[in-house]
Design a protein that fits this description.
Strand 1 and strand 2 (93-95) form a beta hairpin. This protein starts with 6 loop residues before the first helix and ends with a strand. The protein contains 13 helices and 28 strands. The protein is rod-shaped, with a radius of gyration of 47 Å. The protein is an alpha+beta fold. It has a 5-stranded mixed sheet with strand order 10-17-16-12-14, with no helix packed on it. A 5-stranded mixed sheet has the order 19-26-25-21-23. Strands 9-11-15-13 form a 4-stranded antiparallel sheet, with no helix packed on it. Helix 1 (7-22) runs parallel beside helix 3 (65-72).
């Protein structure tokens, strides 16, 4: 690689790299697709395969990394004009813009120096060897902090104390919660990259406990394993790995890219972890499923919030798991850098939901899959690599609003029916009609509740069965219900009434109220009272005679039998009712008897009528 002499060039290079990577669809810090293709084994075989992938990297000189570390540990990589670095262990952010160097940003170790996380006295012997300047384990550090760490083994319980010297089976150094996982993975890298097989290298080994400061062994392996599962690779660490690969050494730390390799390489082949969704049935293969119904909402409503669940890990061994989404699903956990802690059972909270539009009715859905990434099979069925995926199936039903109508295929919000002219006492004519919940989108139209019916006008002249269904009837989209209405022919008069039928959507947020109107009308009259004066008398006969044989609207004028023609039977009706009277509407029928017409009057009537070829006609008087 070419040598860059000024940090300002590095700042610009990193800013360009960051901008270009952010524009891509792939994860910015993922390794090339085929980078680990040859790492297919487990245990010692995998360790050897990983060594072959990452050895023979481009070596930087010990002097060069004074500038390199300003890029790898840039505290503000998205701001090319802001020259700050993050120091290991204490996490201090140091402004180096005023340090003249050379190189620029370096003040000869007064404010920061180069920390070998694998100490030089433990096998990293000279600055000439590649391990002494390997950026995967060298970090910028405060000189006092560096001196305190010295060549101590790492130790201390994660989360129990701040960085510094601890007593943990001997005197050790705790790197701090923010750096524990990154420091652990740096040591895993060193133990694989440097196995003594390459020239000028020493076989570096990790060991449990507190190995002495001699030879090439570093501890405490058990604590480093703990840190690895307690603190997964974050964006800072993954970006650093990418920069070392892209700009300097052309090799990567496999335990950052593939943290699931750690158990097999450094522990054993019998990981007993099993991940499942809390509250579900766990199958023998370790799989579990949770169906998450976000409910029913109306078109254009807000999408319901994601729901919270718990992922449980049984078995005391640590593991990493990958979370992937499909369809329109969302998850608060994503990617392959999710970990369950070791030496205990563990759990993680996860929120799952949908990112979707409710602009149209229909089913919205998606899935979230949980994959235990462990690669070992010795833990048995349902454990480690044999732990089958766990799945969330998430759905949301988006509904069109219900719409009441008197017609099945189109909107008819007003229905009118006229019973016409009905003879008093002739019975109650009926009218059948249907009410529908119009189908908007098949399978996704809201149910419709029939809430109330409000009559107005002369409603006592009619009967309906509407009230019997109000408050109880529910119509699914596209379905209907039959009703009927009748005119009560008990009093004389012309009647009209309207009925407002009130409906609403099913009881979910955003439900709408809608109504349709039924209008009924009709006229009842006294038999033989053709002129409507509430008395059957000679004037009605004269009206009958004057319109004899004419076609009229049923029951209109002198059509007493409702056949639409004024004929002899209408005379018979008048004759049978002659002398009858009726009160106005609402007063009830008259109680007086109906007298027969006198003999003289009937003789006169007979003389006026002459039968002709089976028809009655008027004489010209």
């Amino acid at each position: 690689m070419r040598k860059l002499s000024a940090p300002t060039i590095y700042w610009a290079s990193w800013a360009t790299l960051f901008a270009l990577a952010s524009a891509t669809l792939a994860d910015t810090y993922d390794p090339p697709a085929n980078y680990y293709n040859t790492a297919t084994g487990t245990g010692a075989t995998l360790k050897s395969q990983l060594h072959d992938v990452i050895d023979n990297h481009t070596t930087r000189s010990y002097d060069q990394i004074r500038a390199d570390l300003q890029i790898t540990d840039d505290a503000t990589p998205d701001n090319a004009s802001d020259h700050k670095i993050r120091l290991v262990y204490n996490g201090a952010i140091l402004d180096i813009s005023g340090f003249a160097g050379p190189p620029a940003g370096w003040d000869f170790g007064d404010s920061w120096n180069r920390e070998h996380s694998w100490p030089q006295s433990r096998g990293v012997d000279t600055e000439a060897q590649p391990d002494g300047s390997d950026l995967h384990h060298v970090f910028p550090c405060n000189p006092t902090v560096n001196s305190t760490r010295s060549n101590l083994n790492f130790g201390g319980v994660f989360g129990a104390q701040g960085n510094g010297i601890v007593s943990d089976g001997g005197t050790k150094y705790y790197p701090g919660d923010a750096f524990a996982g990154m420091i652990a993975r740096a040591q895993f890298y060193m133990a694989v990259r440097y196995d003594g097989s390459d020239s000028n290298t020493t076989d570096l080994e990790l060991a449990a406990g507190n190995p002495a400061d001699s030879g090439s062994t570093l501890g405490d392996l058990n604590r480093l394993i703990e840190y690895h599962f307690a603190s997964s690779p974050d964006t800072y660490e993954r970006r650093r790995n990418q920069v070392v690969y892209d700009q300097f050494q052309l090799n990567r730390n496999p335990f950052i890219d593939r943290p699931e390799f750690v158990w097999s390489v450094f522990v054993n082949q019998s990981n007993n972890s099993q991940i499942s969704i809390a509250g579900t049935t766990v199958n023998s293969n370790g799989s579990s499923t949770r169906n998450v119904d976000l409910g029913r909402v109306f078109v254009d409503a807000a999408v319901p919030a994601a729901q919270n669940f718990t992922l449980n890990k049984t078995g005391n061994n640590g593991t990493y798991f990958e979370v992937t989404t499909s369809g329109e699903a969302t998850s608060s956990l994503a990617g392959r850098f999710n970990a369950m802690r070791t030496n205990q059972t563990d759990s993680k909270s996860i929120n799952v939901g949908l990112s979707t539009s409710t602009a149209t009715a229909g089913l919205r859905s998606g899935g979230v899959a949980i994959n235990n990434l462990d690669i070992t099979t010795g833990g048995g069925t349902g454990h480690g690599a044999n732990d089958a995926n766990d799945t969330f199936n998430i759905s949301l039903t988006v509904l069109d609003h219900a719409t009441p109508s008197f017609a099945s295929g189109s909107l008819l919000s007003t229905l009118s029916h006229d019973f016409g002219n009905i003879t008093l006492g002739s019975g109650s004519p009926s009218f059948s009609f249907d009410v529908y919940n119009l189908l908007a989108t098949a399978g996704f139209t809201a149910n419709m509740d029939f809430d109330t019916v409000v009559p107005s006008g002369n409603s006592s002249a009619f009967t309906t069965n509407l009230s019997a269904s109000a408050g109880a009837l529910v119509l699914a989209g596209g379905s209907g219900h039959a009703f009927n209405a009748s005119l009560v022919a008990a009093t004389v008069g012309t009647f009209s009434a309207s009925y407002t039928l009130n409906f609403s959507d099913e009881n979910i947020a955003g439900a709408l109220n809608k109504s349709i109107t039924l209008m009924l009308s009709g006229t009842t009259r006294l038999a033989g009272d053709y002129n409507g004066d509430l008395v059957v008398d000679t004037a009605d006969y004269i009206m009958w005679r004057g319109t004899l044989n004419e076609s009229v609207t049923n029951y209109a004028g002198a059509d007493g039998d409702g056949n639409g023609i004024v004929g002899a039977n209408d005379y018979n009706i008048w004759r049978a009712s002659f002398g009858a009277t009726a009160p106005a509407s609402g007063s009830g029928l008259a109680s007086n008897s109906v007298p027969e017409p006198g003999i003289g009057f009937l003789t006169l009537v007979a003389a006026l009528l002459v039968p002709r070829q089976g028809h009655w006609y008027r004489r010209n008087d």
